Amino acid sequence: MSAFDTDRRTGDGVHVARVPIVGAWVTLMALTLLGWWLGRYHGLGTGRWLTAVILIVTFIKVFLVGYVFMDLRHTPRPILLAFASGCFVVCMVLIALANIL
Question: What pLDDT is stored for residue 18 in this prediction?
């Protein structure tokens, strides 16, 4: 069942799937502003820590998009675990590469 199905309604006619989508959208906007602020004003200084924090914020956004907008919240646990593990591994590899170079 997709987040855009219209057959799931509460008694007052509110679409059930809108709450996670709107919450995810607000969270994505907040994380985007946080990433912009960190990159623009260097809130943590420069160098390795700043790069690591921005990459972590970015991959939180990647996971959130996959979980909410690609409906991974409705998939079996092994698929969700594989996606989350992939996000974590790629993020850590990019952080390691950023610290080496």
Answer: 67
Within a 13 Å sphere around the CA of 65, how many CA atoms are in the beta-carbon half?
A: 11
Q: Where are the domains of the chain?
A: 18-100
What is the spatial distance between Cα 6 and Cα 15, in angstroms, rounded to a whole number? 7
> For the chain, what's the residue count?
101
76-91 as b/e, with b when 16 or more CB fall inside 10 Å?
Answer: eeeebeebeeebeeeb
pTM: 0.76
Q: What is the pLDDT of residues 31-54, one digit of tens each?
A: 999 988 888 876 566 677 888 889
The 3-state DSSP class for residue 53 equals helix
